[in-house]
Design goal:
Number of strands: 14
Largest sheet: 6 strands, parallel
Strand content: 15-25%
Number of helices: 13
Oligomer: single chain
Distance between the termini: 28 Å
Order of helices and strands: HHHHEEHEEEEHHHHEHEEEHEEHEEH
């Protein structure tokens, strides 16, 4: 800012971080590299910038405490062509492909949209869409009914509504995450009563069997869920006992399992060891929380990511995808699968993510 206001030039910024749905981010970047242009247009202050380009609304989203609250969000951009001209005069935006980065072909499931030759994103016809919608179990339906009653008992500003939104997401992942549920009897019940987990286990099994039938090393897979970490050992046990992943494998001087867990509770040294073993194909599956969403490269032998707990921010989704969808991956294709439970907050959050991505793409294309 000082250099811009003093010399009106000589500022160069480089970033590989995905754009968010935040106009503040756009304003901040432009004020660092294009302050003089903004001043000439009479939009050098944040207030004026927001009045000129941003139309806001209020939606439910998580705050820094991971509580779901009503918060202002961007509904659309006004004067979009003027904003695009301002951005392109000062920001050279390129996708990884445009920059010549060699990455695998990424397949997102559910697949509702497709990238066109001009870079724009268009909705696919219904018959060409690939969906990952799953029906609730009886336990989940009973829990969801209680959650709906809780929401109906409150108002738009009532904490009951916000609490119900979070509980519906938890219940969609596993009915045993709902606070009124009894704990599962064992790992089998935990998996069988969760359509998401059962679906994911079936996907992992088919991937493993595919590689084994071809007598080749089994590719790496990532399971992401930013909830329920206390139950991760049940997922690990199921993968070992029911699908056949090995325990006590050697990597350098360490003894690991082919299925490992990464969360905030492990040491940095342990995390690095698991990461290195995954990159070398010794560890086959990583189960992780938000700890693996950024700052850790897992691309070399990873072919599948399963996102079991949809985040509200599309940037978080992109960061998660970037753990494996990056240069240096040995595979030509990578799948990012987000199973969604019908009649739950899953579908609502996914729709909101889709809307936000369209808003972001509107700026650039």
């Amino acid at each position: 800012n000082y250099i811009q206001r003093t010399y009106r030039q000589n500022v160069l910024l480089l970033t590989a971080t995905p754009f968010t749905n935040s106009p503040l981010e756009i304003y901040s970047m432009l004020s660092l590299v294009g302050y003089e242009s903004m001043k000439q247009m009479g939009i050098s202050t944040l207030t004026r910038f927001m009045e000129t380009f941003v139309q806001q609304t209020r939606e439910y989203a998580p705050n820094y405490k991971d509580e779901i609250v009503s918060t202002p969000v961007v509904k659309s951009y006004n004067n979009r062509l003027v904003l695009q001209k301002l951005i392109y005069n000062h920001i050279n935006y390129k996708t990884g492909e445009e920059a010549g980065v060699k990455r695998p072909c990424k397949i997102n499931l559910p697949r509702l949209n497709a990238v066109q030759s001009d870079g724009t994103i268009r909705r696919l016809a219904p018959e060409k869409q690939i969906l990952t919608y799953l029906a609730m179990t009886p336990i989940q339906r009973a829990n969801q009914q209680e959650i709906v009653e809780l929401a109906r008992s409150g108002t738009a500003r009532d904490s009951n509504v916000m609490r119900a939104l979070g509980q519906s997401l938890d219940n969609a992942l596993s009915p045993f995450l709902y606070k009124h549920s009894l704990p599962p009897e064992d790992y089998l019940e935990f998996i069988e009563e969760s359509p998401k987990l059962k679906y994911t286990m079936q996907c992992i099994r088919t991937v493993k069997e595919y590689h084994e039938a071809r007598q080749e090393p089994v590719s790496g897979q990532i399971i992401y869920a930013n909830r329920g970490k206390d139950y991760f050992p049940f997922i690990k046990t199921y993968l070992e006992k029911e699908i056949g992943y090995k325990t006590k494998v050697k990597f350098n001087k360490s003894t690991l399992d082919e299925v490992e867990i990464i969360n905030s509770g492990i040491s940095q040294d342990r995390k690095e060891t698991i990461k290195d073993a995954f990159l070398e194909g010794v560890v086959k599956i990583i189960i992780g929380t938000a700890t693996i969403r950024e700052g850790i490269d897992l691309q070399k032998k990873c072919a599948n990511i399963y996102n079991l707990y949809p985040d509200w921010n599309p940037t978080d989704i992109k960061q998660l995808e970037g753990r494996a969808w990056r240069q240096g991956n040995e595979f030509g294709y990578i799948r990012v699968t987000m199973p969604l439970v019908e009649n739950s907050m899953d579908v609502f959050v996914f729709q909101k993510l889709d809307e936000k991505m369209h808003r972001i793409n509107d700026i650039w294309y």
